[in-house]
Amino acid sequence: MRGQFTGWPEQAMDVLWQLQGEPPRAVREHCRADRERLVRQPMIALLDAIADADPRYEDFSVWHYRTGSWWWQNQSAVIRLGRKIEIGLRFSLDGLRIQGAWWYPDPGQVESFRRAVSSERSGRELAALVEDVRGKGYDVSGDVMKRPPRGYPADHPRAALLRHRSLVAARTLGCEEWLHTPEAVDRVLAATADLDALMTWLVHHVKRTA
């Protein structure tokens, strides 16, 4: 039976404070059990609650520990929506951050993206979706070339999007009291609703071809 998400305990921040900088292995091991209980397990419970609310989000992973200190200071998770298309969550001392991303593309995905961007109907739709998420406070970034790719005119009306080899829309949700309550589920669901149309476009148009 899934554990019920009740929020991150306030002590979770204390654990993350102890892991700042470059903590030696002894400090990490001393904090491991508390970090698992207070930081990582609540992320699993949050993702379970999100999946219960919307079955589209059932395919998720919550990262384990790695060698680098960053992985101890930031608890990350992803919800997979398509090949190399996912929603990411990150909990840290800065609070909770969400992003919708198509990145680290498979061979052929970049060209599928470019064809969809250059097409009048799908390209204009993506341009409007990007502006929509920007208007909701999301930073839009990615791996961006200095100029449009070969075979596409430099004055193409969506030249800026054609330069993308990945596309990421991200926003910090905050570090307020709601993080320590079940309200965090509603906050994340509201953010996934912000990203839904953009992610649906990517799933539909950026196909895996290899």
Could you describe the 3D structure shown?
The chain has 210 residues and is α+β, with helices and mostly antiparallel strands. It has helices at residues 11-18, 25-53, 69-73, 109-118, 120-135, 159-162, 183-205; strands spanning 60-62, 75-82, 85-92, 95-102, 139-141, 167-174. Strands 1-2-3-4-6-5 form a 6-stranded antiparallel β-sheet. Strand 2 (75-82) and strand 3 (85-92) form a beta hairpin. Helix 2 packs across helix 7. The longest helix is centred in the first third of the chain and has 29 residues, at 25-53. It is elongated. The relative contact order is 0.17.
Produce the secondary structure layout.
Elements: H1 11-18, H2 25-53, E1 60-62, H3 69-73, E2 75-82, E3 85-92, E4 95-102, H4 109-118, H5 120-135, E5 139-141, H6 159-162, E6 167-174, H7 183-205
Antiparallel strand pairs: 1-2, 2-3, 3-4, 4-6, 5-6
Helix pairs in contact: 1-2, 2-7, 5-7
